[in-house]
Amino acid sequence: MELRDIEIFLALAEELHFGRTAERLHITASRVSHVIKKQERGIGTPLFERTSRTVSLTPVGERLYQTLRPAYQQIVDGIEEASAAARDVSGTLTLATMGAQGWMINDIVERFRTRHPAVQLVHRDLNPVDPLTPLREGEIDVAHLWLPVREPDITVGPITHTSPIVLAMAATHPYATRESISLEDYGDLTFIGHRSPIPAYMEETFHPFRTPSGRLIARGPIVSNWDDQLLAVGAGQAVTVLVAESVPFYPRPNLAYVPVRDAPPCQWAFAWLTANPNPLTRAFAAAADTTQDAAQDRA
User: Whose CA is closest to 188, among 138, 143, 238?
Assistant: First the structure.
């Protein structure tokens, strides 16, 4: 197997979707399919079970994945470390993350710093109400964002992890004592509104506009930053959605957090302005790609 073919196999094993694998590797879905079929012919058994709706690893495919992933990472690490030493990379890279997500990607940040000790990495907080403007205005080089991001001027890098969804509400809210709620329950609630240029498809990851049955979901107070969201929620004016790992970071006595049992997990990835001339953005993406937690990616 060539290194590129191994990369395609590993990406499909993590994404379990031909289209997303093709997008991640910037190739066509037919190329992914061709490579996998070639591998299966060479090995002599299927590596993936495919239906019209799902893709899953066979036992042989899972065993191959567990064997190849660490070996592939070692190879990529060695190439990148040698390239970094040859380039003697230096300069400044500005990274922005949201709250608890800075902690979630700490291993990636440390890997980058180890590879590029001469680089000054500036780590900033990113306002979740308006996460794209700092990229477009050149205030930051790399943003850690929730997906999807389908902006023509923004490049999305490797997925770092996925997060369960929870609903934040006032501790006195009637739903605060529930073990969980459903997306259909959103129709009974009032959500925070945003004063932001964020695309509607990104907002819907956390705050959809309709329930699964089509009911409109009410919007309440208009906010411009995360702190204002928590103040409005704590006052009982509205509810808001966040990811589960954020809960320990905001242990306010006037707030309650309830899991949303049927909400799709939120995926996170690094992104940068495609026209950004700073070459360190690609170096950072390379560090992220070789340190992502495969188990989390496939959860």
Answer: 238
C-alpha distance across the termini of the chain, in Å: 27
**Percent helix, percent strand, percent coil in the chain, to nearest 5:** 40, 25, 35
Would you call the peptide bond into 221 cis, given omega within 30 degrees of 0 as the criterion?
no
Query: Same domain, yes or no, for 97 and 172?
Result: no
Q: Note the residue count of the chain.
A: 299
Q: Give CA separation, 67 vs 10, 71, 147, 208, in Å.
A: 10, 7, 29, 40
Based on the fold, state whether residues 246 and 173 are members of the same structural domain: yes
| Residue in the structure block whose two tokens are 């979707």 | 17
Angle 94-194-265 (CA atoms, 0-180°, nearest 5)? Answer: 70
**Among candidate residues 83, 111, 140, the one where a domain is terminated:** 83
Host domain of residue 51? 3-83
pLDDT tens column, 266-289:
999 999 999 887 888 888 888 887
In the numeric block, which tokens belong to residue 194?
A: 């945003």
Supply the Cα-derived Rg of the chain in whole angstroms: 21
Q: Which two tokens stand for residue 39?
A: 């591998």
Whether the predicted model's global pTM rises above the 0.70 cut: no
Work out the number of other CB atoms within 10 angstroms of the CB of residue 168: 24
pLDDT in tens, 150-203: 999 999 988 899 999 999 999 999 999 999 999 999 999 999 987 778 899 999
